[in-house]
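I'm stuck. Please check this protein.
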Amino acid sequence: MPELPEVHALVVDLGARLNGRKVERLDVVSFAALKTFNPPVSSIAEQYIEGVSRHGKFLDIAVGELHLVMHLARAGWIRWRESAPVQSGRPGKGPLAARLVLDDGSGLDITEAGTKKSLAIYLVADPREVPGIARLGPDPLDDAFTELRFADILSSAGRSQTKGVLRNQSIIAGIGNAYSDEILHAARMSPFKPAAMAPDEVERLYEAMQGTLRAAIIRADGLAASELKKEKKSNLQVHGRAGEPCPVCGDTVRQVTFADS
């Protein structure tokens, strides 16, 4: 699943490609993916793209006065096309969920692999109309997300497991399964540790969170969307690597890779 660093990189890449461009149309292939019906998708035809941003793991393309918002879920992705596609096969039988076409034929293919379809597309006047965005907690890379604020969040979570708190989008926006593992590994903390912890532990976890996320963003800087999945997987130190050598130290990664603190 794309998490904060990958969605941030998508924003940068797509912003450079899309800002100021004119939309010809949005073709919805998987109608189950479209979660809104008013305004209709035809509303963005002939409109100009004003910017690309994110809200946690949500991607937001501002088109005219509307927002095309996407949550890529577990197996969704964005693929850039330089020219109009050649039609093949029956619509709805492949991974294509929707296609954003620009006035020169280039554009985006929004895809989702597998049979479990969770990708969600919204067309709204205000991003806060999307239920998942309305429920989002603070962004961990926002300037206002200080160590003191993080300490308050952890204290309020009490006996809840720390990994669950890091992954809860209503508490902290943008961190998922993979980066919560990486953050806890960097902090040398158990995922089962209660969130209410000593001040020195809060400091350690906060620094691990900031360092892990910012390092991932730096690594992804300048990469095209097509390269982001490979970059993420190749640089994860512990998530999904049980039984493999650690890419940093070379030791075999165990199923449980955290200290017992």
